[in-house]
Amino acid sequence: QACKLFVGGLSPATTTETLCAHFSRYGRLVDAVVMSKHDRQRGFGFVAFDAPSSAAAALTEPQLLDGRFVDVKRAMPSDHTPARPCNKLFVGGLPQDATREDLRVCFAGYGPVSDAVVM
Predict the structure, then answer these.
(1) Which of 72, 78, 80, 93 is in the most buried spot, having the most CB atoms within 10 Å?
(2) pTM here?
């Protein structure tokens, strides 16, 4: 894991190939991917180097990729994410006449609702 980096804030134009081309200047890459879902780029990806020193070198300077400064940090294994209670929920596709009270009534059966916002 010391060799794997998270790269966030990617431009929609960034591809796995451009990610590889950019980060290969720091050392040999063993893996790189721009994450996507349903053929849409999700704005982040990962690169993995063959040596920890290469990953450390990439972390020492700001990274400008496809016209954007991207957020680069050491990747954390998904099983090491801190457990925290879910306290927000996005609900899409509401009818135009939905109100805050409608949301409160709908979700009150699952526990206390501290706030509801209809946008």
Answers:
(1) 72
(2) 0.64
